[in-house]
Amino acid sequence: MPETKLFPDIINKLLEGIVLLDCDKKIIFWNKWIEQASNIPVENAVGKSLFALFPDLEYTRIDTCIEQAIKYRQSSFISHTMNPIMLPLFHFKDGVEKTKIFHNLRITSLESPDSGFLVMIFITDETINVLKEQLLKKRALEEKILNEKLRKEIDERRQIEEKLKLNTLVLNNTKEGVVITNHESIIESVNPAFIQITGYTEKEAVGQHIRLLKSGKHPEEFYKSLWATINAAGHWKGEFINKKPDDSLIVVESTIDVIRNREGEIINYVSIFHDITQRKKQEEILELRSRTDSLTGLSNRRYFDEALDIQWQVCIRNHFFIGIMMIDVDFFKKYNDAYGHQSGDDCLVKISRVLQANVRRSNDIIARYGGEEFVIVLIQTSPENIREIAESIMRDVQSLKIRHSASDISEYVTISMGIASLTPTKDLSYTMLIEAADNALYLAKKSGRNRIKNILPGDPPGL
Amino acid sequence: MKTLSDLQKDLLQETINISIGRAASTFNKMIQEHISMSVPDIRLINSSEALDLLRMDQNQEICYVEQRFEGSYFVSHAMLIFTENESLELVKLFLGSGDIIEEMSLLETEAMNEIGNIILNASIGSLANLLKDNISSTLPVCVKTQAKNIFGSKKIDSSDLLLLILIDFGIESKKITGYIVLVLELNSFDDFIDRLMQNLTR
Questions:
Q1: Which domains does chain A have, with CATH numbers?
Q2: Which band of pLDDT confidence, cut at 50, 70 and 90, is reported for residue A3?
Q3: End-to-end alpha-carbon separation of chain B, Å?
Q4: Which residues of chain B make contact with A138, given a CB cutoff of 8 A?
Q5: Over the stretch A216-226, which tens digit does the pLDDT of each residue have?
């Protein structure tokens, strides 16, 4: 019949593989396409099973499908995407294997007029699709990654911009000074409050290193510990003394924060601060006022009690020798009566200066104890040293030569002094030492004034 | 209207169960995941009622694989149906998630095609076995569409009596659920049942 002759010609021209199997799974025919892809001529294939021709590979799935086609006339589809092991088909060129052919199988049954059922296997070359898709996917993935990156960047930028708008509004109106530097501490931007507090204009500040504000009032250790804290915690809070362009100093209470990018690298430092110079001054004044005697500038009685308590403990711990001098101006009431209160005050101030001039160590205490009474506490000293200082004070007061016509004992103002000293122990209190010094002063007055009475350790109490 | 007796229902259920079980175990081996399948829900319905039984939104984007099986006693449209996202997840499971992007490509559709083919062949295969009938089938076709179009494209006269067999299909660990739907157009309902009874009770 003409058809049978025509039939192989057409299927040999098809661009897909066609294999016909009989009910025993033996190959009846395969077309040119498979001859080329397998490099096996049809005459070598006929009469053999697929499994005999390609012995190295597993065909469980293919075999199952062929079986289903024969037994149940079911059609099956086998894709290379699902099955890593398919037929070993290649694009050959001059008999040399070039590239693997990715292919799908369609297995179906066919009614044959003479021999019952045939199994027909279509093999489609998907190589171009695979390559195309690989390329497209690669591009799509790249594009996806790029898009995500772009979107993220845009999102970030938009968020930053929105935040910036709000931030700018806030920053321009806050009373807190704000300065933003880059990671190398170069000032990038400042707000109006910064300009007001520091005295630098935006032009003067931006582009400068933050050390522009440095006053030199902080030791290097201060900056070291500041940077250590910032780097460890990302945040610092404390007080700074800064210098204004006119060299005046300002105290600011400041926070410094680290801004990092997504990679964790520092990109900015942000310092927010407010001026506490006035508050600081006020505090210092109040602090000073609370512990000094307004007339003489010496410590007042309240501060004296606190300071002595502390020093007493220091002396107990360290076995320091401690001495207390009680000093009283002789016939001061009469002086006041004779010369007036203003002169009385002047007299007390002059004597105060003498005391200050003779007692210079910072741990020693000089205080105005009562109206015309002073007290001196000498720490880590010796009986000899105490005596020397006491005698020096007596001499200096004498050489002030403050006229005192109402005095019973001299034409000038004189003082009396009672001294008590010891190395304190835990079972003693400083009030005992004050009492002893008071007693000594009493004795000095009783025995004619203008003299020193010294009670040494071991002297009987109540002397 | 014809109805199924309890015995007939049990019979069918048992038959389908066995075939589905075979498909499931094939699957288990392929993807190393536990697959659960419900007991088949078997109903005699009109085609217009069919969609209501799928718990899917009419406009849900779906992906299904369909094969047509033809035997002496029935013609069956067999479908494995997933939502589009779930079908993608399923394919990822087989191919390894690798470089699959949001949408199924040609190659992934092929994979889906084969997955459907394995399940559907197994399902109908045992029914054919049971009926001792030769059932020829078409090659599987993978279709992406909206849920409302599933039954519309079958050219089933809406007044036709259908035997609908619905099976919930799930891979628990991946939260993938789908349906296996076997729509049997019965040439002669009585012949079909008789044949089934004959072979089962023999």
A1: 2-125 (3.30.450.20), 131-280 (3.30.450.20), 292-454 (3.30.70.270)
A2: very low
A3: 28
A4: 99
A5: 888 888 888 88
